[in-house]
Amino acid sequence: MSVGVTNSSDGDIANQIGGGDAWLLYTDTFGNIIASQEIGGSLGDAAISFDTTIDSGLIIGATSASNDLGVSGNHGMTDYWITKLDSMGNIQWQKCFGGSQIEELVAIKQFRDSSFIIVGNTDSNDGDVVGQHSCAGCYTDIWVLRLNWNGNIIWQKCLGSGFMEFASPGGLAITNQNELLILGAAVIDGGDVSGSHGGFDFWILKLDSTGNIVNQKCFGGSHDESAITVKYNNEDEIYLIGSSTIPDGDVTINHGGLMFGF
User: Fold this and answer.
1) pTM across the whole model
2) Where would I find the beta strands (DSSP E) of the chain?
3) Rounded to 5 degrees, what are φ and ψ at 62?
4) Cys-Cys crosslink for 160: which of 76, 133, 206, 262, Cβ 3.0 to 4.6 Å?
């Protein structure tokens, strides 16, 4: 299973809906196409992340600018767009979450109690978004949502400093203690951020299951670091993967240009 976005109306794309559709591609282990499915509205819709669900269905996390056809409830500009499919690919429900500005989804996972955790970015401070650390349309916060099985908000949380923070593409993991690991980037201290080193740092947060911050920490040097993904293993070890440019602060070796490591 792969998800993404398509602007095509030929080849493997059978049912184009709008200018950019969320594309779900089902293949066997040899890469042969089993099924292809496009969902969305008349504007831009991009599937970003998915997870399998306890009923053998799928939960699809997308970013959408549409508010027609297969998308309803958009709050303005782009929203998180969440679609629940059954095991046959039929849409059970779809909902938009966000405010009047821009929301960009980066990751979705099913929690152990069958609820859903969604991570991305927002520069709204209205609609579903409460507690943004900057003014609406100014700077970006990381925005975390927890939804119940039917797609209703259990809680939402903005994480930031009042300047610019954003979630990494693989910036969500769940621990054995049902805590959430959120990985992103932060620049300055303030609000939820402390311990920054200069430039963009790796910014890792641990939240409890109700969205409260357990702890947070910045990792980096005096220049920019770019966090990509967080991984958690059963030994309670956390791995952060990304890139760095300058060997100072927490960065001990650099081979020139960008360095990838833990």
Assistant:
1) 0.90
2) 2-6, 21-27, 33-39, 45-52, 58-64, 79-85, 91-97, 103-110, 116-122, 141-147, 153-159, 166-174, 180-186, 201-207, 213-219, 225-232, 238-244, 259-261
3) -140, 165
4) 133
